[in-house]
Amino acid sequence: MAVPELHRFTLDNGLRVVLAPDRTAPVVGVSVHYDVGFRSEPEGRTGFAHLFEHLMFQGSESLEKLAHFRYVQGSGGVFNGSTHPDYTDYFEVLPSAALERALFLEADRMRAPKLTAENLANQIDVVKEEIRLNVLNRPYGGFPWILLPPVLYSTFPNAHNGYGDFTDLEQATIDDCAAFFDTYYAPANAVLTVAGDFEIDRARALIEKHFGDVPARPKPHRPSFAEPRPSGELRGSHTDPHAPLPALAVGYRMSDPVNELDGYLAHLVLAGLLTDGDGSRLQQRLVHREPLVTDINAGAGLFGPFEARDPDTFSITAIHAPEVSAERVLGALDEELESLATTPPGEQELAKITARWSANLHSDHDRLMSRTLALGSFELLYGDASLVHGLADRIGAVTAEEVAEAAKALRPDSRAVLLVEPEQGGAQ
Amino acid sequence: MTAAAHRSAVEIGATPQGPREVPPLGEQRAAADLSHVDTVLGNGLRVLAVRKATVPLVEVRLQIPFAGDDPMHPATAEVLAETLLTGTRRRDRIAIDTELALIGGELGTVVDPEHLAVSGTSLASGLPTLLDVLADVLTGATHVDDEVARESARIVERLAVARTQPRVIAREALQRRRYGDHPYTREMPRAEDVAEVTPEAVRALHGQAVLPRGSTLVLVGDIDPDTVVGDVERALTGWESDRSAAALPALPDLAGGDILLVPRAGAVQSQIRLSAQALPRTDPRYPALQLANLAFGGYFSSRLVENIREDKGYTYGAHSGFEFTGSKATVQVEADTANEVTAAALLETRYELGRLGLVPPTDADVESVRQYAIGSLLIATSSQGGLAGQLSALAAVGLGPEWLAAHPERVARVTTEEVAQAALDFFAPSRFTGVVVGDADTLAPQLNALGGVTVERPE
């Protein structure tokens, strides 16, 4: 496949733009990534970045409440937004006839969102229902993304619950919203991405027309969220009122995703070696041969890879029978890591991971929504959207020795272990 | 929140220029026609191969009708599905995974009361291997004793986890409410049955039921449809039977009735699940009903979502959608709500059901859902995986790419009057039955006051 076409430029107000034309299907994707996520929300306001994301759909100067949804869907499109540790994204995929409309909608809320007390109260209720649905009323809610960080990390930005406590959510005010918007939603703090069926010159003109007069505001200072790695094994436990079986999560610190990308990619390959497929080391041993666990997963990033700057988390999660002790699972894990650290993996074992990554990246690229979002998040986090297109090759270039190094760095004396215990004391 | 000076919310929400005009839509280009071959092989397997070369991958979807009325069928079928990829006469579990991994491939199985589905993907260059592995497991899976024992144990553990999920509890309750003891309700086996499944029973079921005649195989991707059909036929030589795969008997039509309150003690949120008989895709009135459903609760800008989420904040997500089963279809209305607003949310849902027929969608409403129906189909079928999924669902009921290609035109021709008639005929609250799952102590007084609700007696 030819390398896909990519154009990058910056408007006078600082808005970075990525254009990725592809005329194979008459659909277009538009996204805006703002460089603020839940790691930036202040103490006493947990969950605010996500709550604010909801508010951005509630109307803007030219659009009444509900109008944003109606214009997108009434144009045949779909939309959503999501809040991550280090950024918040908003996106639409539409028939290509609606390109200008989508740009207008994003520009209008970047320029002048309508932040009202009534909509804030309504969306606090909606977010509380979202948290009941995804966390409070189901087994393994928030496992591990809410439960593991407070064990692994000691500073508020890294450790706190990004969904937020109900008490914090209820205290959010319209003035908080105004301050958050003015500080973080400046055009210079955002990336606009357009991918799919459009002509470059026309898209440039439309972007200038709709975003060009969004007033410039200063790009906020981005603090470092760095903190020391754990100097021992940290333990935590959580009693789950709904879970029928115990679970555990092991969290490690890993290479800086941005400044140590090759080391980070070695961790991704390691995760595949450990748990991707029946032939992977931990699946073979812990699910089938011994067997100690029902299911086991390993991965970089608590929401997937390439979602956060440093520090990012390498995690291993497993659900296991009550009669199996966590120590046995941890012991087996440490033995497998030790074995990989001393004897680097063979050529075929690496080739399996590389080929699956290559296919998965092609598949992501084929879905316009994920392609648009990947280009935007790489431009934001890495300053270079074109990295997306080189990822498969860079993963393919990871050596056996680099994987062994990554395995060596996952040390028992510098990690967090979270145990989830069923309230009823195990399966009936 | 921050000490720095900032504008007020009112200052942020207005510019000197004032509100601007929303731009009109441009000219829409149609999707390109995709070359395809749609044929039935000598063994009775329908093969639909579509060229869509956007990325160098291929998607494969096999659906085998897999109904059974033996009480042990759901458990045996589940174990069969979970051990299908664990070994053949030529390959063990690890060899299967290794060969697939080296072509960037995956295969997975899912069984439900209607079908055994085997789905997969790989780099297009690896299709010969993918087909070889697929053929091998279809004709040579051994379901050895050890794998049957281990997978049965895992299924029991997973069932325990699944049955604590509110959405699973609600689904099982809705199925019982709608269809009683019909085989269609047995979407997940009983743990005690799984524990009794023998390897002999799994192997016997494989021989009797994993059959090509009546099954469908969809391939979408960077392939040549003309040659790929021959490749499939050669690979699947040996998958033969004169008998046909077992189709689920037609479901009975739903009748309206009381909502059943199903207790789940201590729950902090309730599941509302309502259902009524609808129309299959082949019915001439289906496009009008599709638009009526979108206007009711089928997209975010629907009356139900705008009422109980965006106006009242009762729920994070409310949705209505179709469930297609063989030649029949039903519509489902779903919302999860906090205890204290559950009865109020049910009241509003019933109100909106009634209002859809009595105060039907306007021309503008219909235009909006029409655009959404056409546009969202265009988006869903713009990826290989999305197109493969759509075609596989259509193929299972005897439809194909022609139906998909003609659907935008069918939707374009629907009139506002036809939508109004479909709304009146199909969305009347009296046509619906359903369940509310939640904390009965909290919910019962309000739901009883609302009426049309029966409280389930503890067994």
UniProtKB/TrEMBL annotation, chain A:
Annotated Peptidase M16 C-terminal domain residues: 173-353
Keywords from the named record: Hydrolase, Metalloprotease, Protease, Zinc
Residue ranges with Basic and acidic residues bias: 230-240
Signal peptide: none
Top-level taxon of origin: Bacteria
Domain Peptidase M16 N-terminal: 16-132
InterPro entries cross-referenced by the UniProt entry: Metalloenz_LuxS/M16 (IPR011249), Pept_M16_N (IPR011765), Peptidase_M16 (IPR050626), Peptidase_M16_C (IPR007863)
SUPFAM superfamilies for this protein: LuxS/MPP-like metallohydrolase
GO terms, biological process: proteolysis
Molecular functions per Gene Ontology: metal ion binding; metallopeptidase activity
Region called Disordered, residue ranges: 213-240
Family per record: Belongs to the peptidase M16 family.
Protein name: Putative Zn-dependent peptidase
Lineage: Bacteria, Bacillati, Actinomycetota, Actinomycetes, Pseudonocardiales
Automatic annotation (TrEMBL), chain B:
Official protein name in the record: Putative Zn-dependent peptidase
Gene Ontology terms for molecular function: metal ion binding
Domain Peptidase M16 N-terminal: 76-187
Domain Peptidase M16 C-terminal: from-to ranges: 197-371
Region (Disordered): 1-27
InterPro entries, alphabetized: Metalloenz_LuxS/M16 (IPR011249), MPP/UQCRC_Complex (IPR050361), Pept_M16_N (IPR011765), Peptidase_M16_C (IPR007863)
